[in-house]
Design goal:
By secondary structure, this protein is mainly beta. The chain contains one helix and 18 strands. The protein has two domains: 11-134, Jelly Rolls (Sandwich), CATH 2.60.120.10; 137-231, Jelly Rolls, CATH 2.60.120. Strand 2 and strand 3 form a beta hairpin. The longest helix is centred in the middle third of the chain and has 4 residues, at 137-140.
Length: 240
């Protein structure tokens, strides 16, 4: 059974400097039907006002990655990392035994738009770590580019979970097929544009749960940017 989450059914928080839409329950937003999927716990679609951001705060035992769609974020953390994450960049922070960090819009003029995503790690108490890499539009054009994997395959960032994340750009006649070696759960988040996935039309902000599949087709894109999560075949997140 496939389950569609429409963009308009997501949670919403307006903090003034931050406009955030939640695909899954987060902070003050709780929906008992949206508490994660497999090991995927959070997808927040965030717009951050110029020169504003998230002050230093802690995390632990979580794989947290940011996918920047527009603008840039300035990152600082207790591991000594400092960087600017621009559109097209992927940042992965393994919180492990504990880390503090801050994320601010690096521009004093333009809004920063990014996805903040949390995935549960396979085990607790890991050594904290930080990775960042740029994946160009050419890397993702008309195909699914692997950006996260448990073994760092194809130049992807290495995540501490049996999960793979792909990013793709599709327009016009461009199409792709994702084939899996065994039945898996997949979550598709359409960041922008329009796209048809296994016959299901999606619009920007929509999420689609796909269960026990070995093949997924992507077609009929209109300025589409999509993230695809290849996940363990269980329904709800549970901590190790």
């Amino acid at each position: 059974m496939n389950t569609l989450l429409k963009s308009t059914d997501r949670g919403f928080a307006d903090h003034g400097w931050l406009q955030s839409q939640h695909s899954f329950s987060f902070a003050d937003y709780y929906n008992p039907e949206q508490v994660g999927f497999s090991d995927l716990l959070v997808i927040n679609d965030d717009h951050v006002a110029p020169a504003k951001g998230f002050g230093r705060h802690p995390h632990r035992d979580m794989e947290i990655f940011s996918y920047v769609l527009e603008g840039a974020l300035e990152h600082r953390d207790s591991m000594g990392n400092g960087s600017v994450i621009k559109a097209g960049d992927v940042q992965l922070m393994s919180a492990g035994t504990g880390v503090t960090h801050s994320e601010f819009n690096a521009s004093d003029r333009d809004v920063a738009h990014f996805l903040q995503i949390w995935i549960l790690p396979a085990s607790q108490g890991l050594t904290p770590g930080y990775q960042q890499k740029r994946f160009s539009a050419a890397d993702k054009r008309g195909r699914l580019q692997l950006i996260l994997s448990p073994d760092g395959a194809e130049g992807s960032l290495q995540i501490h979970q049996d999960a793979r994340v792909y990013a793709g750009l599709f327009d016009g006649s461009e199409r792709a097929q994702l084939s899996l070696e065994r039945p898996r759960h997949l979550y598709v988040h359409l960041a922008r544009g329009r796209l048809t996935v296994n016959g299901q039309p999606l619009e920007a902000g929509d999420g689609l749960r796909l269960r026990q599949l070995e093949q997924v087709d992507f077609e009929d894109g209109e300025a589409a940017e999509v993230l695809v999560f290849d996940l363990r075949p269980h329904e709800l997140p549970h901590r190790p």
